[in-house]
Amino acid sequence: MADVPQNSGYMVAAYIVTAVILIAYAVSLYRRTPKP
Amino acid sequence: MNLVRKGRVITLLGLGLLAGVYVRALAFTPVERLQGPAQKIYYLHVPAAIWTEMAIVLVGLAGIFYLFLQDPRLDRFAEASAEVGTVFATIVLTTGPLWGKPIWGTWWTWDARLTSTLLLFFLYVGYLLLRSAITDPALRGRYAAVLGICGMCLVPFIHLSVYLFRTLHPQPIILKPGPPSLPASMLITWLCSVGAFTVLYVGLVTQRYGLSLQREAQGGIGG
Predict the structure, then answer these.
(1) Per-residue pLDDT for B223 more than 80?
(2) B99, A14: Cβ pair inside 8 Å?
(3) What is the per-residue pLDDT across B51-92, written as a single tens digit (0 to 9) for each?
(4) Cα–Cα distance between B216 and B34 in angstroms, integer?
(5) Whole-number Å distance between alpha carbons of B27 and B196
(6) CB-CB neighbours of B27 under 10 Å
(7) CA distance B93 to B107
């Protein structure tokens, strides 16, 4: 395993960014829904 | 249950499935030896890219049918699909550079695949701006349909760009002629992620469609 590149920071960043974008859009749809 | 509520349930299901994909990808899928952990970005980047392209194809098809049938449901669907496609395109354009930096040594390069994907993102944004700028629903539907059809025509170019031009972007390893070049454990994770993004697309579009319906019922201009 010694020669495997150590770049997990980029992977973690990508997974966090994806979750943030999807959750932010889902929340924006919830907030834009007219309340009865 | 109205459409917005149905969409919310499907979206929550999609987010739950994606959480499962995160666990499987990060804890139970092997690390690729040459690229290291950054290769696992693939499990998010490619499914998001597939649905970015599928969304604009569906916008274009809805646009073609709208021009013939003038059915407002088609226009409403196209609007919802374009907005969700913009969100997925944002994921593609952020996860791509996060993979490119450790593997290529650069965040961005102006090659055909990356540039055409950025163009598709701008086309999505332009589509949404165009819709928000026109208040007459019939005119808005017609103009948006034409722009959506133009966007759809970009998709074959994006997909074939890695074959047509010299590029840093990898060739397809699954969506290509012949069997996939991934081991089974990685392929299963990727397929689960495609499934999760599919459920998310359906849920988010259903919500957005229902939102337009509610706004129209309250006398707004949609969107």
Answers:
(1) no
(2) yes
(3) 999 999 999 999 999 999 999 999 999 999 999 999 999 999
(4) 53
(5) 18
(6) 7
(7) 10
Contact criterion met (CB below 8 Å) for B61 and A29? no
Say whether A14 and B41 touch across the interface (CB within 8 A): yes
Q: Which amino acid is at B96?
A: G
Out of B45, B84, B214, whose CB is closest to A34? Answer: B214
Q: How far apart are alpha carbons B84 and B87 in whole angstroms?
A: 5
Q: Is B5 on the interface with A (CB under 8 A)?
A: no
Question: Which residues are B36's β-sheet partners?
Answer: B32
- The residue among B89, B95, B59 whose CA lies nearest residue B76 is B59
Residue B220 one-letter amino acid? G
CA angle B47, B52, B58 (to 5 degrees): 120
Q: What is the mean pLDDT of residues B158-180?
A: 80
- Answer yes or no: is pLDDT of B113 > 70: yes
Closest residue by Cα to residue B199 from B49, B53, B9: B9
And the tokens for A11?
A: 């992977």
With CB atoms and an 8 Å threshold, state whether B44 touches A3: no
User: How far from chain centre, in Å, is Cα B125?
Assistant: 13
